Structures are given as C-alpha cells and as structure tokens.
Amino acid sequence: MSFDWVTFGFQLVNVLVLLAILNHFLFRPVAAIIAKRQAETAAALTRAEAARGEAEAAEKAAEEAKAATEAARHDVLAKAKEEAEAQRRVLVDAARAEAAKLAEEAKGQAQSVVSAAQAQTLMRARDLGETIARRALAELPDPPDAAGYAARLKQVIAAMAEDQRQALLSGAGLRLIAPKPLADTERKAVFSTLSLPETAIELDPTLIAGLEMRSDTGLVHNSLAHDLDRIAQALKTEAGA
Fold first, then answer.
1. Max Cα-Cα span within the chain
2. Residues 166, 174: contact at Cβ < 8 Å?
3. Rounded alpha-carbon distances, angstroms, from residue 236 to 113, 125, 138, 211
4. Burial call 218-233: b when 16+ CB within 10 Å, e when fewer
5. Region 38-59: what's the mean pLDDT?
6. 8 Å CB contact between 163 and 185
C-alpha cells in the first residue's frame, strides 16, 4: 500500500482550516467570555472585600458609638443622680427647717394656751373655792363648835319622819360620831342639847367638823364634810344646767 501525500496534504489543510475556524469562532469568544467572567468575579470579590471592610468599619464605629453612648448615658445618669440628691437634701433641709419652725410656733402657742388655761383654771378654782367657802360658812351652826353642831343635829332629827327617827334612835349600836375626842364638858353639853342619854362616841376625822348620829338602822349627816359634798354636788348640777 502506497502513501498518498496529496490526500494527506489536503487533510492537513482541512485540519488547519478547521482549527483556524474553531479558534476564530469558538476558542477566542470562549476565552473572552472566561476572561470577562474572571474579571467580573475578581471585581465582585473586590467589591465584596470592600463591603466587608466597610461593614467591619461600620460595626467598629457602631461599637465605639455604643460605648460612647453608654459612657454619656452613665455620665448623664450620674449627674442627674447627683443633682437629684442635692435637690433632695435641699428639700429635706427646707422641710426640717419648716418643721422646726412649726414645732417652735406650736410650742409657743401651746405654752400660751396652757398658760391661759392654767390662769383660767386657777381663776375658776378660786371662784369655786370662794363660792363653796361662802356657802359652807353660811351653813355653819352658831357657834360652830360641838354645842352648835349638837343643836343643828337636834333640829335635823326633829325634822325627820317619825318612822325614820324611831328607826334611828331605837336601832342597835346607836352612837354619836365626832371628828375628834370631846372634853367632858363638851360631852355633857352635847347630850344635854340632844335630850338623849349618853351613848358611845365614835371618832371619824373625815367629818372635819360636826356631829352625826348613827345606828344599825339609820344615819343622820351633820358635818362640814357632808356640807362641802352637798355644796359641790349642787354647784355641779348648776354648772350642768
């Protein structure tokens, strides 16, 4: 078998022409497209890197701004707290001063009221004492001794209802009540005035002055203490009315 160089030459030419056509219509456009894609990818990567850098810078700036804001907020709160505390101290001091002033004024007013009340009370007590003393003196027997009280006791017994008088005088334990011991002359004068036989004499200093008659079934008041109680009750009733 012989080799045909002419045919080989034509085939070689066809291959070269095909490669030239492929290079012109396929390889170059594809290479251009790839290069363009690579350029676009590189640009995108560059932009992404720049954006990432910008984002990191923005995040750092935000952190710094946040830290600055927190510091400013802390300073503002601290200053506001200091101002509020100072204002509170001012208000508290003012309130204490006002309270002390009011307390002092109230104390002065209370002292004035107490002084006026004491003066009024003393005046009323004096008036009441004068009234009681005047009425008590007006009701004292004449003379205001054992004989005088014996005479008044006799009048009181005589003015009693008959059944009450009999119950008193006939009751067991009939006795005369005196604020202090009676001398023999006073004792005889008293029972002579009463027109009664002598009986036991019981001492009761609370009578102050006077003579009273008591038995187990009766009692006759006839003393200065009883007069004072009666006058005080009358004055109380008059004051209530």
1. 205
2. no
3. 25, 13, 19, 26
4. bebbbbbbbbbeebee
5. 83
6. no
